Records
---
Amino acid sequence: MAEPKPQGAISKLLNAAWVRPFLFLVFIVVAWDLAIRLFKIPAYQIPSPGDVLAVLRTEWPELLRQSWPTTYATVCGFLLSALFGIPVAMLIAGSKTVESYVYPLLVFSQSVPKIAIAPLFVVWFGFGIIPKVISAFLLGFFPVVVSAVQGFKSVDPDMVDLARAMQGSRLQVFRAVNLPHALPAIFSGLKVSVTLAVVGAVVGEFVGSNSGIGYVMQRSIGTFDLPTMFAALVILALLGVILFWIVDRIEKLVIPWHVSQREDVIFAS
Amino acid sequence: MKPATVTSETVQPAAHLRLVSDRAGDTSGIKLSGVSKTYRTRDGDVPSLRPLDFHINDGEFFVVVGPSGCGKSTLLKLISGLLPPTSGEILVEGEKVTTPHGNVGIVFQNALLLPWRNILNNVMLPIDMKRLPRQEYLDRARSLLKLVGLEGFEKKLPWQLSGGMQQRASICRALVHDPRIMLMDEPFGALDALTRERMNVELMRIQRETKKTVLLITHSIPEAVFLADRVLVMTERPGAVAAIYDVPLPRPRSLDVMADPVFTELVQRIRKHFFSQGALD
């Protein structure tokens, strides 16, 4: 085969999956810095990237310490939304009666702004971790349910008939056909859910908490310490990306057969 | 075999195309007596099948043709036990069908292979559902795959196979638990014409080797006549038996049989049923 020779290390590096978003990020940061210099934006409105980096470097131990409660609340809220969301979706998809009673209310509940009722959880559960977990759970729950319902419903009825005609019990058919079939949709819901759970946890920290990244942001806004606030934003974004990446990895392990993962299968076989 | 000339030499009309009455008193095969189905919906009752009476013999290749929506698929669900009939009773091998009895293998228009199982495990699905010992049936699954020419594809995932190969795998799945009956609902409807003809020849060979009772539903009259021992023609919805024809063509048949005057005459005769009723599709 007369293929052109690989153009060396630089093009190889460019093709690595993480390099392109990284380059784009560098571009954004440079544009941010240039904009501040060109339009002479005062530091109390938008801090320069350099200031934010400086805070990230000096305040690193403190930021890391504060990010643990946020991570903990996010993960707990996310796991709860998966734990409750998937069975609720199973019930909704499995029974017309349950669907007609529950689904409209569930949609209705989504239009209630969580941030408005978050103080209520503080009243009920105090300033601890629980209000944050509940807030993360409430934000993460809905996307899991919606996607999973869609996944469970998209099973070909002929396929279910086929398994039932082989005398499979309801549970057997569910485990062999319905559940695996719904997994891709469930995972796409989980990915949306995990990023929303981060938002939920921070909302919980906004309204009443004395720890966590949300608390750091709240405090730094109060003192016009914008570099710290932006540094907290960076930490939050990192947290979201890492959690999303973990769910994505788990998805690749659980459903390697799905269309979205097929390239890996070809290389693996 | 006769030379393939379709001349106007008077082919002895209808002598061998008689309507066949069903024999009674035989418990093997599939026996339907007064079986009807009416679906209850919010808008009232929708009759799907008018009372049907016929008997499919053991080891027979029985083909049903009928216009769209005449309840052919309902018939299949009734025989497999997935739906209870509104009236009448169905006997499979002498046993009354009320719930899924597992003595059938089903092939649908789409292969319906599970994308997360490899071909061998897809074929093994009935074994898993029926909780039969896996080890004992693995060899059977492999030899069935060999029978349909899929040897070496056991570890492949369904999407790596062509449509015709997938459908062959689904035929193996219908046979792996050694049922007496194979129910096929337009099994080759989604395949291209060339593959379809090849699959027809192959299906006849498989039926000859496994000696299963086959109930096949199709839209294609030539396909029906080519495959069948007997062809049942259904009326429009709600479906009823319009006629049952014997196919007096000798076996084994090759595709050349389609030029046989007996074949063409029978195709014509069946087609008339649909022209007198209106459209086929």
---
Amino acid sequence: MTFRDYLDVLKDIVVSTAKGMAITLRTFFKVTTKGAITIQYPEVRDQIPLGSRGLLFNDVEDCISCKQCAAACPVDCIHIEADKKDTAGTPDFTKGGVRKTLDLKKFDIDISLCCYCGLCSAACPTDCLYHTKEYEYSVYERDKHIMDYLNYQR
Amino acid sequence: MTFQDVQNKLQSQLSSSILGVEDVKPDPSLKIAPRDIVTVVQFMKDHLQFETLGDLCGVDYPAQSSFCVVYHLQSYTHKMVVRLKCYLPREDGAEMPSLTSIFKAANWLEREVFDMIGVRFTGHPEMRRILCPEDWQGHPLRKDYVTPDYYNGMPVPLFFEDQTTVTSGETHS
Amino acid sequence: MSISQELVEGRLSQTTENLRTDELLLNMGPQHPSTHGVLRVVVTTDGEIVRAAKPEIGYLHRCFEKHSENVDYMGVAPYVDRLDYLASMNNSMGWAIAVERMVGIEVPRRAEFIRVIVAELQRIASHLLFFGTYGLDMGAFTAFLYAFREREKILDIFEMISGARLLYNYMWVGGVSRDMSPEAVTRIKEFIDYFEPKIDEYNTLLSFNKIFTERTKSVGIVDEATCHTYGLTGVMLRGCGVRWDLRKDLPYSIYNEVEFDVPVGSGQMGTLGDCWDRYFVRMQEMRESVRIIRQLIDRIPSGPHRGKVGKVVKVPAGESFTRTECPRGELAFYIISDGSAKPYRVRCKSPCFLNISTLNEITEGVMVADLIATIGSLDIVLGEVDR
């Protein structure tokens, strides 16, 4: 490499970097005049779109204990126990008008195992199991991630 | 070129190595005698323009008491893939000739087959595990594989205090 | 005896001969910022020269193939998403096509359109991440921020369409899980109009920057013979001048109805098949993806978004090997079905696994800094290497 080539390389470096810096400068002015893209998270929150898959919720009033969600779950994080309902009592119906033939004894979801794939809520025939928009539910103990929907409190 | 052409050409040239055709849907496959695999692949590479080894994997068939090593040869010229299958007796010391002399891709793929199924490849430069740790016991993709309870003193699968388990599929119902 | 005395007596050459020079074994990773994941490279260095660079993988092994034998065909889809977690849509498209091919399910036209649009958006997002992190590897931080600004917009669109930001589980066997809303279509149109001029900006910012080209030209050269013997696909293959793209050569879905070019490496900066060629092929592919989306977005037909598929997908006994073009190469699923609800054996042929296996060969005798440039240009995702 001659000295002249070396100078050419130096010139290229300066010119191409200056071009890049011009773009950076333009973006800088845009951000300072029109407002930044970054939001101040805990104070300002992004709008979560409709149908976003967050924490699972089961409305046990509507659940018919069909266990289709547990069968569809690829990680087996849904645990359901149900007994046969006493037929002598008054028939129990869901909001959609489906008769409940089983008595739900346990509906637990281990949220720490859940992979938010949405297969369980798609399989649910009464649409009682669905994803809420909630996404902040860190806890200090791992047991607390087992959601007991029969005694649900948050 | 179609699968039929490949089969005809191979049968006319290397009839003793071709054990037959497995007519499975949707793609058929050729059965090759395990000891002749290097000859067949070399022939296909040199004369039938199968430039690349697309995939190499092992399958365990405990019902037929055999291992199967599956080769997918890929051709850019003919825009097709041909599957070759070699059945081996299902035993711990099962061996296959290595393809590393023809395709360098076989190096890692054969190591993976050894790791997962336990078929050894003779003539391979470094026949050791690739995905599992070196001191792992057993070959996970065999159908009768049982996850060990402990690995170096750590419980496998990981038990939490509340007995919920993170499993590797073995206790899946 | 002092050095000056040695100099006088002409014995200095002898002392330099006696200096101990040795090869140094350097452990790069598994937790190293420039390895893009938990990859460990055992590097043997001779001064600044790399003598051998052996990748050690398996730190992210999650038993995908074993898991798939224990869940049904629909249940494999979330696991497939987690293979190449930067291009989940393309992965699940590959899985869906593989299963549909075995069952013989007809996918509705609308679903095909949505699939291709979404897959191309994902390709842009994946290449953008490559662009950003490759700049980061080369010491250019600004490009990273630009890339993530744009990627964020794509992820927002995906969240609107599928409900998740990274692991979507959107493409199901037989179609897509949800229909695409008109608002999402508008958002995508806005995005491609906004994004296309930005590619030129990136080229000015990084691609033709002299410092960047000097770092990447004639480094990590892969020629066609190496590609074939190592089974390299995707950008690795196109970077060395081979015009091979499954979307063009063996079209699946509706890729035969759209017009696009297959960019290949030209060696315009240095040697054909160097890091810069691979980098620039990816930059051009983003433009082609925009072109594909632009052709499809206005003529999405109406109709159902999912074909007639039962709750449990019944796959007849058989075997299929189905390849699709993912951002990192050809992803293939080899499925063996015995007719039951669960697959007998699923084999995932991952392109990254073969791409990273060349590292030792292509980095022999390069400088340590060039090793970083080469690893970056392979664009590996360890989730797919280890499966």
---
Amino acid sequence: MCKIRLSSKQQEIASLKGGAALVRASAGSGKTLVLVERIKMLAGVTRRKVLAITFTNKACEEIRTRLAEADESLLDHVFVATFHGLCESIIENHIAATRFVIMPQIFTDDDRKKILEETIEETPSLTQWYRGLSEKERRETLYRALNTISLIKRSVILDDELFRVVEDEQMRNLYLNYREQMDSLNAIDFDDLLLNAYQLLIQNPKIADLYRRSFPYICVDEAQDLNKAQYMVLRAITGNEHKNVMLVGDTRQSIYAFNGSSSEYMDECFVKDYNPAVYNLTENYRSAKAILDYAQKIEHDEALDVTLPYIGVCKECVYNTPCEEAQGVVDDIKSLVGTEIEGYDGILSYSDIAVLARNKFVLGKIEGQLKSCNLPYYYKTTGAGWEFSSTAAKAFDLAMVVRANPYDRLHLDMLQSIVGVDSCKTLDCVVGKIEDSFLKEVVRKASLLKDDCDNMFETINFILNLLRNSNAFVFKSADEALAVFGEFELLKHHWVSYAKSVTNHSLSAFRNAMSLGKTAPAASEGNGIILSTVHTMKGQQAVVVFLVGMDEGTFPDYRAIRKGRNSVEMQQEKNNLYVAITRAQRQLYICYPQRRVMPWGDWSARERSSLLPPLEARQ
Amino acid sequence: MQRVLIDEIRIDGFRGLKDFKMSLSETTVLTGMNNVGKTSVLKALQLLFGNSSFLAAEDLHIDKNDKSDCIIVDAKVVAIGEDGQRVANFSDVWEIAFGAENIKIADELAYVPLRVKYTFQPLQNAFNRDMQVLNDWESSGIVWQDMKGKKSTIKGDCFQFHYLDAKRDIQDDIKSRTSYLGKMLGDVASNYDPQDVAELEEKISSLNTEAIDKSNVLKNIQESLKGIDSAMGSSGTVYVSPFAKKLRDLNKSLTIHYGTEENCFTMDYHGMGTRSWSSMLSFKAFVKQLNDSKCADEAAFLPIIAIEEPEAHLHPNAQKQLYRQMSEMPGMKIISTHSPYVAACAALSELRGLYKDGEKTVCGSLPIADLESEDQRKIEQAVLVSNGELLFAKAIVLGEGETEAQALPIFCTKHMKSTPVELGLSFVDAKGCGNYYPFVVLANAFRIPWYIFSDGEKETQRDLEKLVKRIYDGNTELEGQENIFIIPGEKDFEGMLLREGYREEIECAIEHLKGKGFIDNFIRQNNHTPKKRKKTSKVCDKCRQPIYEDIQRIYDGENGRLTALDDIMEKNKAQLGPILAHYIVGSDKNLPPLIVALFEKIKKDVYHV
């Protein structure tokens, strides 16, 4: 976005100094711009730091970049982080005030699943019950259990309330045993970050005071998606006396209820606890008129102020089958790319186009079609969740985890199983037993990593050199050698981006930063047409958007329909649609197939989504 | 403004220091024998807060068992209020300087645990320096060296370390641009108002002209040098300037004089004492100027000043003034000294004594919190009376009165064949048998061996029993204490001498003091007179009060004379002590066995003979 003068409304908010403020900013109203301008102003006046909380690492990066563009030294007076990042740093800096001896390792979802399975195996009562379940039930149970555990933590449900809130006894047991298991490994999950930081602040009022003084101004973006744990952390930092808190959000864009988020923290709790001045940002600087008119029919906004002079395109299409839908979309893309469109400087390119869907599976057909036409595309990810596939890179990563956290026998076991050894209690023992000479060297090198990571760079380079000088026959195939090399290069990227971002290196913090997605190399963003779910597209936009799979049962999701027309879930689906539509800047194409093939091979007829405005209302 | 203090340091692996811990106050006075590690402590602080350019592989600690491969220096920075007591939070200025990520909290009090770790790299023959902030100052189950931390993100300029070594000389300071004086002088010109500069330089210029005009020699030189002009054929001109032409060159010709109006010499004509002292005072001016400028900017700033043997070359009277001059400097002062005068001026809470415990260097300090103010006053008094020597004693002998304090040194000289001064022995008058405790605490704190030479009365023994119980937390009995010597037979010092057959010397001493015939007169005048009244077990029928009886003085016969001598000595204790000791030492009789035992014990313990 080029440099734009702020409107008077935006300027008013950007110039707010003290006091609590709630900014309701509708999609495309330039809230990030306003937020950055205000942070810039505050960072210039305070000798301490402005705390800016956003919801993704990417958004953090964007704010930092924009601040640095204005004045590099502003960054000394701003702490930009996600809630997870903030909590991680609080725990790390005051580890002595927690129950941990060393910084715990953050376990990702895969690790959590393994822990859960282990928990079930080691608890006789659970084992028996679990064995009685069918394969499908087991899968569902695991999934449900992980969600329940997350929800318990995100909702800050304490043990004495547990009995009342979680009715299923097995779930309660699973939760308690899971927690014990994690403790024994000195591990925490993402939700624990918030919970532990909250407890630390509550139990050590002096530390909370310290942060309260450190952050005289606090700004929270995307506040409609706060969950209880996050709101409690915010409360713990501000206490009752700190009122210089600004929340920015849009109730209509609240789409993370399934995660325990709710806009009531912004709309009700914040209003009650902080008594903020309320501001509305209703001007839309993003989307063309046709698109906004359409969005108005989904969620009407009295105050919406259309500012762009472009009419734009907003069109619905119906296809016979998903294949035809994919074909149609790709044909449209082909004919659009390379042309000039209204309100857009220059020629439309692939990267200006996004294809959105409610769920990832809907995008499969589109991907297939793009592939066969040889068009560039990539899947948008949240940044978190990287995975190594080669044995060597996996082994190095696991050995690094165990090196950082000697209590972590889960990853020690995983390491042993992929390098083909067993019954080791230490990393040195594993190194001693590995037969493959290359793997042995990789794990040995990882075992020699220092706590402060001083030798990380040289270690990775050493392994890369080893690969450069190796023979093909060391590996099963040339492809594998290539994969290993590529993955160590990737690890180097992670390391460099971590090492640049902090002055204080530590092995466990590096691994945690990787887990939190803070180190995802920008290159992984990819080039070409964006394929994305609505959720991962949050906070971003595209010139042309295709919204596919708009049939009832797909969007809204059949599970939401089951909950009833007036359920929270259905309201969330509506918000999802609103978010999807407002991603489009100039042209929006909405389509669905009339038939879908069922898993058992039959065709089933599909209806136009009930979320869309009634057809006769158009024209 | 609220201040900060480094209230504790720890050092490991550096020179003679291993697992070394020490507390600090704003001014700390460090005593200890040569080679015990005083300079190492100061240098270790330099490693943490200053530069490490002096560091070499030889600085790594070596002992019988192994060689260290790294050096660790820790310092705990705490916030203090106006009264010097710890307060909960750092002031805004310091909190901003440290940052929330580096401030830790224990027992509701904020602090910053700093660590520097130098790891030796044998291949490069160099050290890796790693500045950290620890997660915690101490933690149960972890030795302090293994405490974990993160790299420090504290900017270095809030601490400024200065090292004043023993080889100070103001003459060198004036010449060197890098000395504290040189730094200040180099900056002098920029502190003038530009108009003043013009005026002053104008005056100097006319002064120069006048000085040359009136001097044939200078005129001659200037004329001769004009030859350069013609030879070079340039438009330059030669000037001879007896006084620096430009104010910015002021420091080049600056001299410092000291003396009276008429009789005044530049510093090179003074002795090292004056030169060393002036050097320190010019440093004081430097720190004050720096501190004032930092305070004006509201910057977080703590000077840390290590001063090595400030007393070097100075007369005792000058030494006595040093302490105040140093303690007035801003920031933290750590002073190593061998001067009793400097140590005697310090508050008891500021004294630290280094000593060797086996192979290990340990720092002792008075447990001020355990001492009542009355006890502290007693120690201060005794330190002052001894001119500070008490703090440097090799052994302390405690007696309950003046007699012991005066007579024992005389016996000592005879028995040990050296004076107590030579031996480093201090004899202290505790002023009563119930007053030993503070002195024992002092001696124990600085690991000075102590001995008690006590009267044998029952009450006195009970006091000693109480003392022993108090020192050893009730775990030890008086009996078997080899450093406590009690006169047998419930006698006092004089009684002991009488009993040990020094009657002749006692009579000589009394007549020496009181004149010839005094004893006979005394007996004649006082025999059969009431000495005092004694309570009996009988009770008066009328008033129900106990009945008292007179006790008569009986000086009849040989035993009566001994009683009379005892009574005379009782009355004249203070004056008699040293005279009596001289008579005994002058005779060819042996010293009383208990006194011999005391000195033999000291010989064995302290001098290892």
---
Amino acid sequence: MKTTNRAVRTGGLSIRLDVRALTVVLLLIVAALVASVVLIGTGDFPIPAADVLRTLVGEGNPGQEFIVNELRLPRVLVGLLVGASLGLGGALFQAISRNPLGSPDVLGLGQGATAGALVVIVLTSGSAGQVAVGALVGGLVTGLAIYLLAWKRGVHGYRLVLVGIGVSAIVTAVNGYLLTKSDIVDAARAVVWMTGSLDGRDWDQVWPLLALTAVLVPLVLVNARGLRMMEMGDDVSYALGVRVERVRLLLMVAAVLLTASATAAAGPVSFVALTAPQLARHLTRSPGPNLLPSLCMGATLLVVADWVSQRAFGAEQLPVGVVTGVLGGVYLLWLLVSERRAGRI
Amino acid sequence: MLVESPPEQRAETAPAPPTRRAVRAFGLLLSVVLLVLVALASIAIGAKELSLGQVWHGLFEDSGTYGDVVVAERLSRTLLGLLAGAALGLAGAVLQALTRNPLADPGLLGINAGASAAVVTAITYFGVTSLTGYVWFAFFGAAAVGALVWFLGGSRGATPVRLALAGTAVSAALYGYLQAVMIMDEAALGKMRFWTVGSLASATNSTITQVLPFLLTGTVLALALARPLNAMAMGDDTAKALGANLNRTRALSMLAATVLCGAATAACGPIVFVGLMVPHVVRSFTGPDLRWILPYAAILSPVLLLGADVIGRIVARPSELQVGIVTAILGGPVFIFLVRRRRTAQL
């Protein structure tokens, strides 16, 4: 295989740079920004891209300023942050479980967060903010439960996945029960929430997400080195000086926090966490966990999917989760077949 | 399944010593007694309690009293529980033998999700409202997804993890579709949110007569597969040497499992874990011989399903907890326990 790594040495500092991965990250950031500008311009009141840019730097007319800054910018920002969190969380889970299908969707984190949200929606008919708190708590509790149940002198990848599947089945039953207990109005609201939607998101959702990602992303990236070594197996990475269980616990907590907060903000948008790391890996052609490319890919995917959901279905707008679900389903089938052919799963 | 049995137990596929056989036959008899007791409980217990005398009266001396009406109502529910339970248990046992995988289960392998997706499609896009129509759609969905998961899981090279993951992935995709349909069509949501949890409450006599032929065919087919599946458990090469037709056995097993699950799911909605749990429990005292596992599973699965149904009626009085919810809440921990007990090398 042609290597794309370059060593950069200046004085005492020496870094290995993967040029291809870096290019992919830059291109994805550009794509995400372009998609965001287009998305801000899309809606019942279309705004040309040039006007969007002018308004963003503070030189638009008052009408456009209100629409862009108060209505559409927060929605796009939530989309970017949620996509980035899901992409990174998914990459972490797939690396930890050493399985391309070990995404938070499959492991039951989405269902756990849904259970938390459904409790709030069905039992108290609570506000959107309370629903978000419920989802966050549900996701965190489920993540903790899966980790503890999969623990047996360490957490093995396959056991993690299978325990996750079991937990997910239990929680799905609880969700089904809550749905039958609700009246039809709450049930309809719950189903929309369960699909994942960016409708009506404002600055109140942006700030907590931004703060959390600002803390967690650097923390994760610093520990990425250990994760890369852990792909060679626990024993080898021990020998190389990685404290395996500690790194794994730290990264899992970070991944659960990222996923749970993203789910709290937008609902369990399906398949982004599963597909973003895979797509990123295909682009970078690098075997490692590809954390940063996955993050950028997740953000791009979600914003593009939101644009598709607004454009493709015309008057009856579907939540963004439906688009990611349909695209993800097709992609998943292809992934299963190709991974099997390559003998990886 | 056979992965965990020590070699000396495996030899038991040869005719067992007479005392052992007597014990197993006695156990089977005991299971039948247990089944009768649970069935009686299922008729007696509910929002309106009935005494055993009233149950007897309602079953055999119909005189049109209030108690008799309640008995008639609960009788069809109990019958459906018996049939669907037996079907799910048999399907689980056959799938576990076929895939040589102790974690195989119609719910886990996505067959239930396939049936659900097909039924939603039938309700929303084809305006089907009768169970007669559901059955065919559920069959089609179950068969299509069963084949898909089997193929994606690696067909002949299928391993436990591959099949479980393929099943979960396909289920996830199908549930995504389910949600999209329910968002767009509130009427479908109204129907489906009750159907998808799996319940025996809507059982009527016409439901039963509708699914009965399929369930009986599937049951006979499954029981007839005990011998060839036993041979296959020894490994493909040995089975071939013993004269088993591998491809035919595989195809017939998938067919039996699909018919049984499709019919059961069409009648009561997707119910998970019955097919996983019961064959496991049974295997722990019968050993790996499917000629015993299958009848035991067919009798003990309805015990579990009806038991869960009765529990669901008791814990949430005066309303009730759907049986699919109770089985998942009981079965999930068992599944996790099995995963934990197993050595990781076997997964």
